[in-house]
UniProtKB/TrEMBL annotation:
Keywords: WD repeat
Name of the featured protein: POC1 centriolar protein-like A
Highest taxon of source: Eukaryota
Ranges for region Disordered: 26-45
WD repeat spans: 266-308
InterPro entries per the UniProt record, alphabetical: WD40/YVTN_repeat-like_dom_sf, WD40_repeat_dom_sf, WD40_rpt
Length: 490
């Protein structure tokens, strides 16, 4: 039976755009900075090679992650298990943050550190997480000064010197008595180096503020908007392979920035927690979606479950709050619904005659403007306007972006994975597809950009990460060929 690998897909697939930001009978025009059409890699405003010499954790593929500081001055870029702090303007490295035992998954700058317990001279605080195939992983707090330099420093092992010293003590005996050749000695030395690297990482971690666990996925917002709290998940392995004791079931942990030792535990979910976010207007409230077939709303104060919505024997995946905190959107298997926070009642359900939706809609984002929700729907993007008062008929949904594939086996690789509103006004929408091209729409001016991977270009990693520098009106993309690119959105 024929099969399709990602490498083969990237080599064969020709990007086919069937619809590109069409809404209410109008199609977006190419933005002036787009030169009348899509821009391919190589036509960006500027680019930079990402350091890729950092070793991946055992059994992990290479990975990257990125975050922009609240004042748009610094970029935190993770490359496998290391994080580097760059200046945005000149891309100078200011710090290397070493301590994660496995590849970094997510990086967040804390928006407001005024309430956080931090060392003296802290200007920026970062939270990053790492995890491997099971639930093993760590969350680390990093503290930077005004120059972007780390305030936590540890003495790294002199790994090469220690390996040489170890070999000098045993190499003569191994050569004369055991007749080992140069290749065999090199293999032994490599073993010393690998062991020292692991020990060095563990030693560095002990000097850092860290916690066991990791952040939830699928657009989760684990840091509260008011700078009071943040959340993580523990014991988040799926229970589908077998039951576990209640104490070992997936758990949400709410922590407090002003007291790193304080925590509230939210027990109740019986399978892996996919998504969790704080209300944008009330950090005492949060919502979760889990593979146990439930959506839940919780009190962050005492861990009490305020609302439980049971979907049955299905997997629930994602969600988002409305910007005013009055509603929450939940997305599960064959289900995308909006609920009232005050009453817990279902308000609306996504669904129209003739509208085909994927069984799992996992990538979505509610616009900061409050009037629209963007949802990745397989090879398309939907715009749902649930409370749009500009129209006589509320609750409108339209497919605004759609890709195609000539080869049926290509379809599973093309889906949109990254859906995000870029600006604080909620007018700039970015969508990343499975072959690492970015589609951007300014719905206020009805302009569009497309930043496209050249056909056949091989990728060394999967990335759909981007951030928006609102001051410079520049989109920064972290691409699968280990390059950081800047694109003009003026």
């Amino acid at each position: 039976m024929p099969s399709m690998s990602r490498a083969r897909f990237l080599k064969e697939y020709v990007l086919k755009v069937e619809k590109e930001f069409e809404l209410d009978g109008e199609t977006a025009e190419w933005a002036p900075s787009s030169s009348g059409g899509p821009l391919e890699w190589g036509q960006e405003q500027s680019s930079m090679d990402i350091v890729k010499s950092d070793k991946s954790a055992e059994r992990q593929v290479s990975s990257t992650a990125m975050a922009l500081s609240p004042d748009d001055k610094y970029l935190a870029i993770a490359s496998n298990s290391a994080i580097r702090i760059y200046t945005v303007d000149k891309k100078e490295i200011r710090a290397e943050l070493i301590g994660h035992q496995s590849n970094v998954s997510k990086v967040f700058f804390v928006e407001d550190i005024s309430k956080a317990e931090t060392p003296n001279d802290t200007q920026y605080m970062i939270l990053s997480d790492s995890k491997i195939y099971s639930d093993k992983g760590d969350i680390i707090a990093w503290y930077l000064d005004s120059d972007g330099k780390s305030l936590t420093r540890t003495m790294p092992f002199a790994i090469e010197a220690l390996a040489d010293k170890s070999m000098s003590a045993i190499s003569e005996d191994l050569t004369s008595h055991h007749e080992l050749d140069t290749d065999a000695l090199a293999e032994i030395r490599k073993g010393f180096v690998d062991t020292l690297v692991k020990s060095d990482m563990k030693n560095r971690l002990q000097s850092l503020t860290h916690w066991k666990g990791h952040f939830p996925s699928f657009g989760s917002k684990p840091l509260s908007a008011d700078g009071e709290r943040w959340l993580q998940v523990l014991n988040n392995e799926s229970t589908q392979s077998g039951p576990r004791r209640p104490a070992l079931l997936p758990t949400i942990v709410v922590r407090h920035f002003d007291n790193i030792n304080s925590a509230t535990y939210l027990h109740g979910h019986e399978d892996a927690i996919m998504w969790a976010s704080f209300s944008p207007t009330n950090s005492e409230l949060l919502a979760t979606a889990s593979w146990d077939g439930t959506f839940r709303i919780w009190s962050a104060l005492d861990g009490r479950e305020n609302l439980k919505i049971t979907q049955g024997d299905v997997q629930d995946w994602s969600g988002d709050f409305s910007p005013d905190g009055r509603h929450v959107l939940f997305a599960g298997t064959d289900c995308v619904k909006i609920y009232s926070i005050d009453t817990g009642d279902q308000v609306l359900k996504l669904g129209r005659d003739g509208l085909k939706t994927e069984a799992w809609i996992r990538y979505l984002s509610w616009s900061p403007a409050g009037d629209a929700i963007a949802l990745g729907n397989g090879m398309g993007v939907l715009l749902w306007r649930p409370f749009d008062k500009k129209y006589a008929k509320w609750d409108r949904v339209d497919e605004i972006l759609k890709l195609g594939a000539e080869e049926p086996m290509h379809k599973g690789f093309v889906s949109f994975n990254g859906i995000r509103w870029l600006d604080r006004k909620g007018q700039l929408l970015a969508a990343a597809d499975g072959e690492n091209s970015f589609f951007v729409w300014d719905r206020e001016r009805n302009l569009k950009w497309r930043f496209q991977r050249p056909m056949g270009k091989e990728l060394e990693l999967f990335s759909d990460d981007c951030v928006y520098d609102e001051k410079r009106k520049v989109l920064i993309t972290l691409d699968g060929d280990w390059k950081l690119r800047e694109w003009n959105l003026e």
